[in-house]
């Protein structure tokens, strides 16, 4: 699992480096970019993802305590938070289209869409993985002493949240 | 070792710290011009938020030092690179 997590972090690091190099060569475009974005959508999505990380940490804590029912409830809340994130992202995409912001608007928005869509895909895949963990929890495949699969899924989900911790200020605040 | 109740309390406190730091960053985005000092503060916030997630939510505080160290390095290096880029672009643009 850690090899996958490091590979994913490396992939995002390459995106960040490309973004920063592009910023050095196009400072005006990148300074103006964040002002045209819907900051509220970015803030709400950050709060949703951080809350989802709290939910999945509670799920792992419940399983470590041997409480399968509580674990399942927290996992389903995590999936719900993932769905809310995706819903807000889709709404934000529509908001951007209404403001004539597309992937071709300028280099800042091209990278904004590449980064945003890549992260969106990770949230969607992560949500499916959490749903899989929830199914295994429901089927009693995890126990207090044996729940490595659940912990792996939780680590992957936290990684998705960690990456967003960088993406949010990079795209919406600093540009 | 923490007991279950202490663990839940720590998770809740970390979550609240993370929400507070996010709202602080969003205040910069909404109401202030991004100066070098603000950029530095935003980058420090990234590292602080990451450390909360890594140590408390992921539970890596007592994990293998190599695993924890690599993740920590990532969330120190990337904010440093972001901060350096912001300073550099401000410097060349006066």
The gist of it:
In chain A, 86% of the residues lie in helices and 0% in strands. Chain A has helices spanning 2-25, 27-36, 39-64, 68-98, 107-138, 148-174. Chain B has helices at 4-31, 36-57, 65-92.
Explain this structure:
The complex is a heterodimer of chains A (175) and B (94). Chain A is mainly alpha-helical and 175 residues long. Helices cover 86% and strands 0% of the residues of chain A. Chain B is mainly α and 94 residues long. Chain B is 83% helix and 0% strand. Chain B has three helices and no strands. At the A-B interface, helix 1, helix 2, helix 3 and helix 6 of A face helix 1, helix 2 and helix 3 of B.
Largest interface: A-B, 43 and 45 residues
How confident overall, as mean pLDDT of chain B? 88
Derived from helix and strand composition plus strand pairing, the structural class of chain A reads: mainly alpha
| C-alpha end-to-end distance of chain A | 32 Å
Task: Give the N-terminus to C-terminus distance of chain B in angstroms.
Answer: 53 Å
- Helix share of residues of chain B? over 70%
Cα-based radius of gyration of chain B, to the nearest Å: 16 Å
Mean pLDDT rating of chain A: 93
Task: Report the C-alpha radius of gyration of chain A, rounded.
Answer: 18 Å
Binned, the helix content of chain A reads: over 70%
Give the SSE map:
The complex is a heterodimer of chains A (175) and B (94).
Chain A: H1 2-25, H2 27-36, H3 39-64, H4 68-98, H5 107-138, H6 148-174
Chain B: H1 4-31, H2 36-57, H3 65-92
List keywords for this structure.
A: 175 residues; mainly alpha; 6 helices; elongated; B: 94 residues; 3 helices; 83% helix; flat
